[in-house]
Structures are given as C-alpha cells and as structure tokens.
C-alpha cells in the first residue's frame, strides 16, 4: 500500500455562534499546548484536585463526587443515567426536546422503563404534568433538561421539580449541558441529586472532559445497586478509585482536555460565577433585542440566554441561511432539530463567544442574508442591539 499524501491542517477560522462548540479562549488554547505528563504523574494528580475544586465552584456544590468524565457531554449523560438506573426502575423523562429522547434511550438500554412527560417543543415542562406522572407511575428517578439545546427553552423553577421528586422518594438527574457556567445553576441550594454538562458550550473549552456531580443520595443509590452498571468504562464505582482518594489506575484520562477544562474553569472563577451569569444574560439580551427589532421572533416561551431559537419566515429554509452564513461570513449557527427542523435558527451566546462584537457580527450577516424577505429590517435590528448592549 502506498503512503497517503496528506496536506497541512488548515481548518477555516470561524466565529462559532451555534449550539456548540463555542469559540475557545486563547488561554485555553495555550493550556492545550503545555507538556504532556502521565495520567498518574504527581503533577497531574495535583491538577486533578484543582479541577474538582473548580468544578464544585461552578456547580455551586460541596459534593465530594464532582469530576470530569472522559468523553463528551453524552458520556457524562450516560454515566449519570446508567449508574442511577437499575433494571426495573421507572424514570420520568421529558418529551419537549431532542435530548429528552436521548435520555429515554439511555434509560431503556440500562434496563429501566420510561414515562414521558410531554410539552410542545418550545415550551417547558408543566409541573402539574410531572406531578400527574408521579401519581400514576411512582417513579424512581426524574430526569429533565435545564436548558434544552434543541428548542432554546430554560426549564423554570428547578427547586419545585426537585422537591416534588424528593417528596415521592425519587432522585433527580439534571442535564446542564447548555447552562453550566453561563446560566444560573445552584446544585446544592436547588437540591439536585445529579447534574452533568459538557466543556464546549458555556465554558468554551474543547469537547472531551465533561463535568458531572453527584450528591450523597445519588452516591448511596449507586453504592447499593444490586446489579452491575452496564458500562465498565462509565461505572462510577470503578471510577472512584481514580478520581477518589486512591488515585488508582482505571483508564488513561484525556490529559490535554483536562488541562483545557482547568483553564476554562479558572477563567470562570476569575470572572466570578454570578458575574458570568450576568454577562451571558446581558449579551444575549442584545442579541434578542436585535432579532426582534429586525422583524423575527424567538421560538421558545421560556428564554434560554445561552441558546436562542429564532423562528424564520415561512418561505425560508434554515439550511439556506446556515449555509450562506457559513460560506459568506464564516459564522456558524445551526438549524432546527426534530419537531422544529427546517423552521428555526439556533444561535448560541456562550462563553467566549458571548461578546458584543460577535452579536453585532451575526446580526449584520443575518440581516444581509434575509434582507430581501418581507418584514425584515436589518438596520433596525443592529440599532436595537447596539442600544441594548450600550446599557
């Protein structure tokens, strides 16, 4: 076999304003270029301690078991669900977005039975519907998405959902993939039993080391399991030997990704988590003001600052707009998924991408692309965004 001819690696320089990944901060890129050490090297063990403490700060928790899972956010999701779901368990899952369906699939692969609480895509779950599911099915777990990436919906009143679960002797699993580090999230105060996220959204690190935290109730359920977790790699009773006090070999951690995660978490801590939440909301408010003044509207009824879903005119396909933004302006946004496929744009406002200059760039480019459409006033959109962002 002949040696393949391989050229230089020259990916385009995009502005990432989609549902993730977001723009990586220069300090995070530099951290990835630091020397590699072994995953049991004393220097890396010290860094593991730092990463866990920083994760606790951003999660707003004192949970001992707070770690980065080696893998993308879906690995952290599966770690939470597979470890907390035993065969025969009943798990309430959301039916108002794409990632509720992924939760259901993981529950069923773990031997659990799912009960779906539905709401229209673009709307949050109604707590009365969740309560009815508890009354009818007496579930062991309640899983829900804090910020649904497919619909731009922020689930309100998380403490009411966790209280409902605990009053019925159930545990909670919260998907915080699109909120961790960018939208208010208080694991301990809200009494969340397990929460997971990803590195590439509001933290602006590359995917590959994904945050997970579990409280005492969740760890007690895992330790008392009667059957083995159906994944060796994600079995938290095994991973405790590596991320716990022993620091014993389990697998080779993605060392460079952990470097990146650490630096991204340091940036969050330096900014201050409350200030970071405020920045995301303030910058996304500018985006929302521009979108609405331009003549468009958001597709969700419960606004998620980090992920804005924009309803397009009926005669325009989302793929046409995303392609033109990418090809003509090097700006990445995404189209719709599932029930909203073809109808919306998903515009992220996350981490290092949540900046005034990025918002104005994407609004200007979007105005150019939609300029011939009826009811679109690109200039008004930019003017409204500048006014909102100057406050």
Automatic annotation (TrEMBL):
<keyword id="KW-0808">Transferase</keyword>
<dbReference type="InterPro" id="IPR020578">
    <property type="entry name" value="Aminotrans_V_PyrdxlP_BS"/>
</dbReference>
<dbReference type="Pfam" id="PF00266">
    <property type="entry name" value="Aminotran_5"/>
</dbReference>
<feature type="region of interest" description="Disordered">
    <location>
        <begin position="1"/>
        <end position="22"/>
    </location>
</feature>
<feature type="domain" description="Aminotransferase class V">
    <location>
        <begin position="38"/>
        <end position="336"/>
    </location>
</feature>
<dbReference type="InterPro" id="IPR000192">
    <property type="entry name" value="Aminotrans_V_dom"/>
</dbReference>
<dbReference type="InterPro" id="IPR015422">
    <property type="entry name" value="PyrdxlP-dep_Trfase_small"/>
</dbReference>
<dbReference type="InterPro" id="IPR024169">
    <property type="entry name" value="SP_NH2Trfase/AEP_transaminase"/>
</dbReference>
<protein>
    <submittedName>
        <fullName>Aminotransferase class V</fullName>
    </submittedName>
</protein>
<comment type="similarity">
    <text>Belongs to the class-V pyridoxal-phosphate-dependent aminotransferase family.</text>
</comment>
<dbReference type="GO" id="GO:0008453">
    <property type="term" value="F:alanine-glyoxylate transaminase activity"/>
</dbReference>
<dbReference type="GO" id="GO:0019265">
    <property type="term" value="P:glycine biosynthetic process, by transamination of glyoxylate"/>
</dbReference>
<dbReference type="InterPro" id="IPR015421">
    <property type="entry name" value="PyrdxlP-dep_Trfase_major"/>
</dbReference>
<dbReference type="InterPro" id="IPR015424">
    <property type="entry name" value="PyrdxlP-dep_Trfase"/>
</dbReference>
<keyword id="KW-0032">Aminotransferase</keyword>
<dbReference type="GO" id="GO:0004760">
    <property type="term" value="F:L-serine-pyruvate transaminase activity"/>
</dbReference>
<keyword id="KW-0663">Pyridoxal phosphate</keyword>
